[in-house]
Design brief:
This protein is an alpha+beta fold. The protein folds into two domains: 231 residues, PurM-like C-terminal domain (Phosphoribosyl-aminoimidazole Synthetase, Chain A, domain 2, Alpha-Beta Complex), CATH 3.90.650; 88 residues, 60s Ribosomal Protein L30, Chain: A (2-Layer Sandwich). The protein contains eight helices and 14 strands. The longest helix is centred in the middle third of the chain and has 20 residues.
Length: 363
């Protein structure tokens, strides 16, 4: 099931936009270059952040969105939301943030200050202090790049939330509508006037509701680059690796004794929420919301027995009012696809990771 990660590189290959898409090319780059040379027991979990032995959670991210300001947010707000959400997806609450700026010559100082003020307001609203930073100036075209690193502390010592923890019998819950941020950025670049705004938000209150509603949260992942399809494939791959390593494959009904069992995620297209303006935009542009990035949505995977309670708690939150149970986790043989979609016509089809560049510079 992890075939999407097995691409190898030759010495003549060069970086393309696709390597930054969050899809299969990004996964291959992570595994074959960074993951292979930086490998250790913490990094190899392939989570949104790192849970350190000292009960500290850390995550880092770099933001290159274009345009710098867009309906519903800007690169400053986005850089805070994105990194804090990655800490939250580890079952931790962020407390500190560092930021590093790469400024291109020609950038208006008034625009820079506006973005810095937006960062400060977003961090303050989340109860997070910006405590360290760095600035570099390079030749360029009036652009701006921001790197942020977040530090937080686990909400509950008993929780082990990881992309590799999905198990057969779990339910898959999506917190809200897909494609808002992606559609917003593309609209802004094309000069299209519509009502679509980015869903850029810090999901601290939503994560608090989820964690307080159950002691059995298996997976939390924000749905960003590559979209829901890519995120679910990453979860299925990570969970299959840990599941097969802890299972007695000889007792599995889904494979022979020499074929370890794997995790399969099944989702229902009719259960996936998409806002009407985004749905209309996708219809015109030929886009699929399943592969579009978001900046204020998450996937929560929990045992079925807890799913309704968690869903109810999510719907009481501003950023989870459109939450839906969209699928289930099952055991499968390693030859079966990791993620399958039941279409509106009732047909089951494989749902692969994003292939190619998608829309570059959305975050």
């Amino acid at each position: 099931m992890t075939d999407v990660f097995l691409k190898s590189f030759d010495s003549s290959e060069r970086i393309t936009q696709g390597h930054g898409s969050g899809g299969s090319d990004s996964a291959a780059l992570m595994r074959e270059i960074f993951g292979r040379h930086f490998s250790n027991e913490i990094l190899d979990r392939l989570d949104d952040g790192a849970k350190l032995p000292e009960d500290i959670v850390v995550s880092t991210d770099t933001f290159v969105v274009s345009p710098l300001i867009f309906p519903g947010g800007d690169i400053g707000r986005l850089s805070v939301c994105g990194t804090l959400n990655d800490v939250l997806m580890m079952g931790a609450f962020p407390r500190y943030l560092s930021c590093a700026f790469v400024l291109e010559e020609g950038l208006e100082i008034s625009l820079l200050e506006k973005i810095v003020l937006s960062m400060a307001a977003t961090a303050d609203a989340a109860g997070v202090k910006i405590v360290a930073g760095d600035t570099k100036v390079i030749e360029g075209n009036s652009g701006l790049l921001i790197n942020t690193t977040g530090i937080g502390f686990p909400a509950k010592s008993s929780l082990d939330i990881s992309a590799g923890n999905a198990r057969p019998g779990d339910s898959v819950i999506l917190s809200g509508t897909l494609g808002d941020h992606h559609a917003c950025i593309l609209s802004a670049r094309m000069g299209i006037n519509n009502d679509i705004k980015s869903d850029c938000a810090v999901l601290d209150d939503l994560c608090s509701s989820i964690i307080n509603s159950s002691d059995n949260i298996h997976v939390l992942r924000d749905v960003t680059r590559g979209g829901l399809a890519t995120v679910l494939n990453e979860i299925a791959a990570a969970s299959s690796n840990s599941f097969s390593g802890n299972s007695d494959s000889g007792n599995s009904d889904s494979g022979s004794s020499d074929t370890p069992p794997s995790i399969q995620i099944k989702i229902d297209e009719t259960k996936i929420p998409v806002a009407p303006p985004v749905k209309a935009f996708c219809g015109v542009m030929g886009l699929d919301p399943l592969f579009m990035g978001n900046e204020g949505k998450l996937v929560c995977i929990v045992p079925e027995v807890d799913s309704e309670l968690v869903l109810e708690s999510m719907r009481l939150n501003e950023f989870g009012r459109d939450a839906q149970i969209i699928g289930t986790v099952t055991e499968a043989s390693s030859s079966e696809p990791p993620v399958v979609l039941k279409t509106r016509l009732g047909v089951m089809r494989r749902l692969s990771m994003l292939v190619g560049e998608g829309l570059p510079r959305i975050c």
